[in-house]
Each structure stands twice: as structure tokens, then as C-alpha cells.
């Protein structure tokens, strides 16, 4: 059964973009709950890359629902000193560790929880379909703003292996996280997560 799920995961995670990413074995959504920092993002998507230099590190809060779905609230400071929060509700799928959601910015997304060390960091691989385009986005989240050089390197390797160009692997500036996002909150029309 486990190997069937793994196989199914391999199929689902690589449906749109050719890669061999499978979800974390024995994925534990409860263990992922709570606050994280978005540390790194890697994608070849041109739309995202056109403003990658403006993206700052933000905070993400994960709340599992009673049904096993996932609520994600992401807050960041924009370059214009305004806080943005975006909210994503991601549906669980038959494969533990794979979720689906739709946002205006990223289109239809299949989120794969590729690797988690729940008290330290986790790595995601998302395949997105926006209009007629398919592209992958990898993200690195940390419980702390500082992660070890080994973890950064693991993210880099993972991204290269999933087809992201070296120059499109970004570790975000830390200055987006330290200002409380309780003032001036706007809800983004497009969601950047
Ligand atoms: C954050 O830091 C980056 C890199 O040092 C800098 O380019 C950017 O202007 C800073 N942004 C804010 C809002 O402080
Ligand atoms: C999530 O589930 C809801 C309720 O079943 C459904 O209407 C929606 O289309 C689903 N979204 C995705 C992206 O699968
Ligand atoms: C994808 O859609 C865009 C905008 O609708 C269009 O300009 C482009 O030619 C399409 N590309 C392909 C490969 O169909």
C-alpha cells in the first residue's frame, strides 16, 4: 500500500513538469502546524522572476483543518512599506502530503510537501498551471530565519534536480519579517505564496 501511494505521489507530483518528486514519507500535517518563515523560492516562471528582486522574506502560518486540508496565511512587507497578507485554502488529495489550490497569481497549483524536518525546515515542490503555462516552484520554509548552510545547499540541489536554473534560486532578504504586519494590512489581489 505504501509503495502504491508513493508511486501515485510520483505520478501526481510530476504530472505537469517532469521531475521525480514524491511527498515526504509518513507525512504528518499536524507536525507542520504553526509559524514558519519563507526563506527561499526557486522557479523559472518569468512572471515571478520579473519582480523577484522585490520579494522579501515573510511569515507563513499553517493551520490544518479537521478534515485534513490546510489553511495557509502568508504575511510580508512590500517594498513600499505596506504589509500584505494572503490566504490560501489547500485541499487534501488522496495522497498524503499533496494538496491542491487555485489562486489568481499562480493558477491551479498542486503542492507537494517534499521534505520536512518539522522542528527545523520544510521543502515544497509546487506545479502550477496558469493559462496554458505549466511551471514548478520550490520553496524553503524555516522555523527560524536562520537556517544552516547545509539546508540552503539542500534547497539549491533539490531545485537544480527539479529543473530550476541556478540563477533562479533565491534566498530572500530577511528584512520583511521583523515588522509586525498588524498595521496597514491589505489583501492582495494576486497571491504571492
Ligand atoms: C531589504 O533588504 C534588501 C537587501 O539588502 C534591500 O534591497 C531592500 O531595499 C530592503 N527592503 C526594505 C523594505 O527594507
Ligand atoms: C477544493 O474543494 C472544494 C470543495 O470540495 C472544491 O469546490 C474545489 O474545487 C477544490 N479546489 C481544488 C483546487 O481542488
Ligand atoms: C499561451 O497563451 C498566451 C496568452 O493567451 C499566448 O500569447 C501564447 O501564444 C500561448 N502559448 C501557447 C504555446 O499556446
From TrEMBL:
PANTHER family: LIPOCALIN (PTHR11430:SF133). It comes from Amphilophus citrinellus (Midas cichlid). GO terms for molecular function: small molecule binding. This is Zgc:153704. It holds the Pfam family Lipocalin. Belongs to the calycin superfamily. Lipocalin family. Residues 33-174 form the Lipocalin/cytosolic fatty-acid binding domain. Residues 1-19 form the signal peptide. Keywords: Signal. InterPro entries: Calycin, Lipocalin, Lipocalin_CS, Lipocln_cytosolic_FA-bd_dom. The keyword DNA-binding does not apply.
